[in-house]
Amino acid sequence: TVPLDSGAEVLVYPNGTIEYDPNGAFDSLPDGVTAEDCFPYTVSDGSMEASGEVCIMIVGEGGPPVADDDSETTSADMTVTTNIVLNDSDPDGDDLTVTIVEGEPIGSDGTSVPLDSGAEVMVYPNGTIEYDPNGVYDSLPEGETVTDCFDYTVSDGSGSATAQVCITVEGVNDPPVAEDDSVVTDNNSTVTGSVLGNDSDPDGDSVSVVSVDGSPVTEECTLVSDDEGSLTMCSNGTYS
Protein backbone atom coordinates (compact mmCIF):
# COMPACT_ATOMS: atom_id res chain seq x y z
CA THR A 1 0.00 0.00 0.00
CA VAL A 2 1.38 3.38 -1.04
CA PRO A 3 0.18 6.56 0.75
CA LEU A 4 -0.28 9.46 -1.68
CA ASP A 5 0.32 13.15 -1.03
CA SER A 6 -3.44 13.75 -1.34
CA GLY A 7 -4.12 11.49 1.64
CA ALA A 8 -5.53 8.74 -0.54
CA GLU A 9 -3.95 5.30 -0.66
CA VAL A 10 -3.22 2.93 -3.56
CA LEU A 11 -2.53 -0.78 -3.29
CA VAL A 12 -0.23 -1.82 -6.17
CA TYR A 13 0.44 -5.36 -7.40
CA PRO A 14 3.46 -6.35 -9.57
CA ASN A 15 1.14 -7.37 -12.43
CA GLY A 16 -0.07 -3.77 -12.71
CA THR A 17 -3.38 -4.11 -10.87
CA ILE A 18 -4.06 -1.22 -8.51
CA GLU A 19 -6.74 -0.54 -5.91
CA TYR A 20 -7.22 3.18 -5.33
CA ASP A 21 -8.85 4.25 -2.04
CA PRO A 22 -9.78 7.95 -1.59
CA ASN A 23 -9.45 7.24 2.16
CA GLY A 24 -11.75 10.13 3.09
CA ALA A 25 -9.43 12.71 1.55
CA PHE A 26 -12.17 14.06 -0.71
CA ASP A 27 -15.20 13.84 1.58
CA SER A 28 -15.49 17.64 1.57
CA LEU A 29 -15.62 17.79 -2.23
CA PRO A 30 -19.01 19.37 -3.09
CA ASP A 31 -21.55 17.37 -5.03
CA GLY A 32 -20.66 17.36 -8.76
CA VAL A 33 -17.27 19.02 -8.31
CA THR A 34 -14.27 17.03 -9.53
CA ALA A 35 -10.66 16.66 -8.41
CA GLU A 36 -7.72 14.85 -9.97
CA ASP A 37 -5.26 12.75 -8.01
CA CYS A 38 -2.11 11.73 -9.93
CA PHE A 39 0.91 9.63 -9.06
CA PRO A 40 3.91 8.32 -11.07
CA TYR A 41 4.83 4.69 -11.55
CA THR A 42 7.72 2.73 -13.07
CA VAL A 43 7.70 -0.59 -14.97
CA SER A 44 10.66 -2.85 -15.70
CA ASP A 45 11.40 -5.77 -18.04
CA GLY A 46 14.31 -6.87 -15.93
CA SER A 47 16.93 -4.87 -17.77
CA MET A 48 15.29 -1.57 -18.65
CA GLU A 49 12.66 0.69 -17.05
CA ALA A 50 10.02 3.14 -18.18
CA SER A 51 7.88 5.57 -16.19
CA GLY A 52 4.34 6.80 -16.55
CA GLU A 53 1.62 8.53 -14.57
CA VAL A 54 -1.79 7.48 -13.31
CA CYS A 55 -4.47 10.12 -12.78
CA ILE A 56 -7.67 9.33 -10.90
CA MET A 57 -10.68 11.61 -11.39
CA ILE A 58 -12.74 11.94 -8.21
CA VAL A 59 -16.32 13.24 -8.41
CA GLY A 60 -17.74 14.82 -5.26
CA GLU A 61 -20.92 13.23 -3.94
CA GLY A 62 -21.71 15.65 -1.14
CA GLY A 63 -21.02 14.05 2.22
CA PRO A 64 -23.66 13.96 4.98
CA PRO A 65 -23.50 16.38 7.92
CA VAL A 66 -21.84 15.47 11.21
CA ALA A 67 -23.88 16.00 14.38
CA ASP A 68 -22.20 16.09 17.80
CA ASP A 69 -23.93 15.68 21.17
CA ASP A 70 -24.73 18.79 23.22
CA SER A 71 -25.05 19.52 26.93
CA GLU A 72 -26.38 22.43 28.98
CA THR A 73 -27.21 23.18 32.61
CA THR A 74 -30.13 25.04 34.16
CA SER A 75 -31.98 25.28 37.46
CA ALA A 76 -35.35 23.66 38.06
CA ASP A 77 -37.17 26.99 37.81
CA MET A 78 -35.32 28.53 34.86
CA THR A 79 -35.66 28.24 31.07
CA VAL A 80 -32.33 27.85 29.26
CA THR A 81 -31.62 28.92 25.67
CA THR A 82 -28.81 27.52 23.52
CA ASN A 83 -28.00 26.52 19.94
CA ILE A 84 -27.47 22.83 19.24
CA VAL A 85 -25.99 23.06 15.71
CA LEU A 86 -23.03 25.31 16.54
CA ASN A 87 -20.85 22.25 17.14
CA ASP A 88 -22.25 20.35 14.14
CA SER A 89 -20.65 20.52 10.70
CA ASP A 90 -21.08 19.65 7.06
CA PRO A 91 -18.14 18.49 4.92
CA ASP A 92 -19.49 20.48 1.97
CA GLY A 93 -20.03 23.66 3.99
CA ASP A 94 -23.80 23.49 3.50
CA ASP A 95 -26.12 25.20 5.98
CA LEU A 96 -27.62 22.87 8.57
CA THR A 97 -31.26 22.80 9.63
CA VAL A 98 -32.87 21.02 12.57
CA THR A 99 -35.65 18.94 11.06
CA ILE A 100 -36.77 16.52 13.78
CA VAL A 101 -36.73 16.42 17.60
CA GLU A 102 -37.95 13.30 19.38
CA GLY A 103 -39.85 12.29 16.24
CA GLU A 104 -41.59 15.67 15.91
CA PRO A 105 -41.06 17.58 12.61
CA ILE A 106 -39.79 21.12 13.18
CA GLY A 107 -41.78 23.82 11.38
CA SER A 108 -40.34 26.91 9.74
CA ASP A 109 -41.52 29.09 12.66
CA GLY A 110 -40.34 26.65 15.31
CA THR A 111 -42.12 23.84 17.12
CA SER A 112 -42.78 23.23 20.81
CA VAL A 113 -41.94 19.60 21.58
CA PRO A 114 -43.19 17.92 24.78
CA LEU A 115 -40.55 15.61 26.24
CA ASP A 116 -41.14 12.31 28.01
CA SER A 117 -39.98 13.93 31.26
CA GLY A 118 -42.83 16.44 31.14
CA ALA A 119 -40.51 19.31 30.27
CA GLU A 120 -40.95 21.21 27.00
CA VAL A 121 -38.45 22.40 24.41
CA MET A 122 -39.11 25.05 21.77
CA VAL A 123 -37.00 24.24 18.71
CA TYR A 124 -36.23 26.51 15.76
CA PRO A 125 -34.83 25.30 12.40
CA ASN A 126 -31.60 27.30 12.90
CA GLY A 127 -30.76 25.19 15.96
CA THR A 128 -31.87 27.58 18.69
CA ILE A 129 -33.73 25.78 21.48
CA GLU A 130 -35.52 27.00 24.60
CA TYR A 131 -35.71 24.28 27.25
CA ASP A 132 -38.41 24.80 29.90
CA PRO A 133 -38.43 22.46 32.94
CA ASN A 134 -42.17 23.21 33.05
CA GLY A 135 -42.45 22.67 36.80
CA VAL A 136 -41.49 18.99 36.52
CA TYR A 137 -38.50 19.35 38.84
CA ASP A 138 -39.95 21.72 41.45
CA SER A 139 -39.70 18.93 44.04
CA LEU A 140 -36.02 18.26 43.24
CA PRO A 141 -34.11 19.03 46.47
CA GLU A 142 -31.54 21.79 46.49
CA GLY A 143 -28.10 20.44 45.60
CA GLU A 144 -29.40 17.44 43.64
CA THR A 145 -29.42 17.13 39.85
CA VAL A 146 -31.23 15.18 37.16
CA THR A 147 -30.42 14.83 33.46
CA ASP A 148 -33.07 15.20 30.75
CA CYS A 149 -32.00 14.04 27.26
CA PHE A 150 -33.60 14.12 23.82
CA ASP A 151 -32.56 13.33 20.24
CA TYR A 152 -32.48 15.70 17.29
CA THR A 153 -31.77 15.41 13.56
CA VAL A 154 -29.99 17.94 11.34
CA SER A 155 -30.08 18.04 7.55
CA ASP A 156 -28.01 19.73 4.83
CA GLY A 157 -30.77 19.24 2.27
CA SER A 158 -29.50 15.93 0.95
CA GLY A 159 -28.19 14.06 3.99
CA SER A 160 -28.89 14.00 7.70
CA ALA A 161 -27.35 13.08 11.04
CA THR A 162 -28.69 12.55 14.56
CA ALA A 163 -27.25 13.52 17.94
CA GLN A 164 -28.43 13.93 21.52
CA VAL A 165 -28.99 16.94 23.78
CA CYS A 166 -28.71 16.44 27.55
CA ILE A 167 -29.87 19.12 29.97
CA THR A 168 -28.65 18.90 33.57
CA VAL A 169 -31.33 20.33 35.87
CA GLU A 170 -30.23 21.53 39.30
CA GLY A 171 -32.65 21.50 42.22
CA VAL A 172 -33.40 24.77 43.99
CA ASN A 173 -35.11 25.63 47.25
CA ASP A 174 -38.64 26.60 46.22
CA PRO A 175 -40.83 28.76 48.49
CA PRO A 176 -43.74 27.16 50.37
CA VAL A 177 -47.32 27.52 49.17
CA ALA A 178 -49.76 29.10 51.64
CA GLU A 179 -53.52 28.70 51.17
CA ASP A 180 -56.18 30.90 52.78
CA ASP A 181 -58.04 29.53 55.81
CA SER A 182 -61.49 30.28 57.22
CA VAL A 183 -63.46 29.23 60.27
CA VAL A 184 -66.89 30.18 61.63
CA THR A 185 -67.73 30.79 65.31
CA ASP A 186 -70.10 32.93 67.36
CA ASN A 187 -69.04 35.98 69.34
CA ASN A 188 -69.04 34.13 72.65
CA SER A 189 -66.98 31.07 71.71
CA THR A 190 -63.27 30.39 71.42
CA VAL A 191 -62.11 28.57 68.32
CA THR A 192 -58.93 26.53 67.87
CA GLY A 193 -57.25 24.98 64.86
CA SER A 194 -54.19 25.01 62.62
CA VAL A 195 -53.42 27.16 59.60
CA LEU A 196 -50.80 24.79 58.16
CA GLY A 197 -53.08 21.88 57.28
CA ASN A 198 -53.65 23.10 53.73
CA ASP A 199 -50.19 24.63 53.19
CA SER A 200 -47.32 22.79 51.50
CA ASP A 201 -43.72 22.96 50.33
CA PRO A 202 -42.64 21.78 46.84
CA ASP A 203 -39.38 20.39 48.27
CA GLY A 204 -41.15 18.50 51.05
CA ASP A 205 -39.62 20.68 53.76
CA SER A 206 -41.56 21.29 56.96
CA VAL A 207 -43.22 24.70 57.17
CA SER A 208 -43.85 26.95 60.15
CA VAL A 209 -45.60 30.21 60.88
CA VAL A 210 -43.12 33.09 61.21
CA SER A 211 -45.47 36.08 61.47
CA VAL A 212 -49.13 36.96 61.89
CA ASP A 213 -50.60 40.35 61.05
CA GLY A 214 -47.06 41.73 60.88
CA SER A 215 -46.00 40.43 64.28
CA PRO A 216 -43.22 37.80 64.56
CA VAL A 217 -44.33 34.38 65.82
CA THR A 218 -42.00 32.60 68.26
CA GLU A 219 -41.93 28.94 69.21
CA GLU A 220 -43.62 29.95 72.48
CA CYS A 221 -46.52 31.44 70.51
CA THR A 222 -47.50 35.06 70.01
CA LEU A 223 -50.60 36.91 71.17
CA VAL A 224 -52.18 39.36 68.76
CA SER A 225 -55.22 41.38 69.84
CA ASP A 226 -57.44 44.22 68.69
CA ASP A 227 -60.91 45.60 69.46
CA GLU A 228 -62.57 42.51 67.93
CA GLY A 229 -60.71 39.90 69.98
CA SER A 230 -57.38 38.18 70.46
CA LEU A 231 -55.47 35.43 68.67
CA THR A 232 -52.70 33.25 69.99
CA MET A 233 -50.61 31.87 67.10
CA CYS A 234 -47.81 29.33 67.47
CA SER A 235 -45.04 28.60 65.00
CA ASN A 236 -46.39 25.07 64.45
CA GLY A 237 -49.54 26.62 63.00
CA THR A 238 -51.91 26.04 65.90
CA TYR A 239 -54.04 28.94 67.04
CA SER A 240 -56.64 29.73 69.69
From TrEMBL:
Stored InterPro entries: RapA2_cadherin-like, VCBS_dom
* Protein name (Swiss-Prot/TrEMBL): RapA2 cadherin-like domain-containing protein
Q: Please state every residue range assigned to the domain named RapA2 cadherin-like.
A: 55-131, 163-240
Give the transmembrane region(s): none
Highest taxon of the lineage? Eukaryota
